[in-house]
Amino acid sequence: MILEWLFRGLEIAALAAAVYLLVGQEWRHGLVALAVVYAVTAVYILSVWSPGLAAVKLVTGWMAVAVLGAAQPAEGWRESPPPGWVGTAFHLVAAALVALLVYSVAPLMARYFPVSAPVMHGGLILAGMGLLHLGMSTRPFREVVALLTTLAGFDLLYTGVEQSILVAGVQSLITLGLALVGSYVITAPSMRTGEGQE
Amino acid sequence: MNAPLIWILFPLFFAFILWLVRWREGWVMRLGVVLCLLLALLAWLLPIGTGFRVFGNRWEIEPTLALAGRQLVVQNNDRPLLIFVYLIAAFWFGGSREARAHRFMIPYGLAVAALLLAALSVQPFLYAALLVELAVLLSIPLVAPPGKPVGTGALRYLIFQTFAMPFILLAGWALSAVEANPANTFFPLLAQIFLGVGFALWLAVFPFYAWMPLVAEEADPYPLGYLLMLLPTTFLLLGVRYINAVAWLKDLSALWEVLRLTGVVMILTAGGWAVFQRHLGRLFAYAVTIETGTSLLALSLNTPQSMETFAMLFLPRVLALALWALSASVMRSGGKGLRFEDLDRAAETFPFASAGLATAYLSLAGLPLLAGFPARFLLLEELATRAPLSAVLALAGTGGLLLSGFRVLAVLTGGYFGPREPRETPFQAILISVGVVVLILLGFLPRLLFPAMLGLVPAILMP
Question: H-type helices in B183-220, by residue range?
Answer without folding.
Answer: 186-202, 211-218
